[in-house]
Amino acid sequence: MAAAPGSNRPVTGDPSIARPVLDATDLARALTRISHEIVERNHGAQDVIVLGIPTRGVALARRLATLVGEIDGIQVPVGALDTTMYRDDLRLRGVRALEPTDIPAGGVDGKTVVLVDDVLFSGRTIRAALDALSDQGRPRAVQLAVLIDRGHRELPIRADYVGKNLPTSLTETVHVQLEEYDENDAVLLGPADLGRRTPPPARGEAAR
User: Mind listing the pLDDT tens digit for each residue in 146-184?
Assistant: First the structure.
């Protein structure tokens, strides 16, 4: 039984079918790099708001907001943006529990909003996020940060900040594990049914 990258916690099942992509150190390094890129691109973070897309995007957003704030010496507003009711595949996915949308005080008008998600796949989650954000106000600019870009886009959406570009097959699933939910930080690549034998991927990852 193999241990998850960066952790002593075992990954159940045949270890040969779960390929480690990032361990805890790699993940932290990727977030640090993204945070520096955010500060550089925006000439500071004075007007930056970071919004995570549930579930794991929220945890990543909080980490990025902390890192960006440390670099620029300010407190960066951070919140969450639920996309459930804005998805174009809602009929196919069935009824799902809504995640709380949490917009920082002051709103998004005139701000640079950095949307954060764990995996960028088809682009449909991000399209839904843009629709959800438009109901919250009118940002000056919207940027996208993702931990993993696995390709296979169905919509013309591109991330501004990427932790790792990961070529994948449609028969594979990217499994992001974060300490806030899974007791360790790691990214694994395995077959689509791997989630039955390891901690599940982020909500809706298969359609992102």
Answer: 999 999 999 999 999 999 999 999 999 999 999 999 999
Domains of the chain, each with CATH number or no CATH: 2-88+97-207 (3.40.50.2020)
Q: Are 49 and 112 in contact (CB under 8 A)?
A: yes
Per the DSSP assignment, residues forming a β-bridge with 114 are: 50, 143
Structure tokens belonging to residue 22: 């990032």
Per-residue pLDDT at 96: 59
pLDDT in tens, 28-60: 999 999 999 999 999 999 999 999 999 999 999
The three state secondary structure string of the chain is CEECCCCCCEECCCHHHCEEEECHHHHHHHHHHHHHHHHHHCCCCCCEEEEECCCHHHHHHHHHHHHHHHHHCCCCCEEECCCHHHCCCHHHHCCCCCCCCECCCCCCCCCEEEEEEEEECCCHHHHHHHHHHHCCCCCCEEEEEEEEECCCCCCCCCCCEEEEECCCCCCEEEEEECHHHHCCCEEEEEEHHHHHCCCCCCCCHHHC
What φ, ψ does residue 144 adopt, rounded to 5°? Answer: -125, 130
The model carries a pTM of 0.83
The residue type found at 14 is D
Please give the single-letter amino acid code of residue 67: L
CA distance 105 to 65: 15
> Rounded to whole angstroms, how far apart are CA atoms 75 and 133?
22
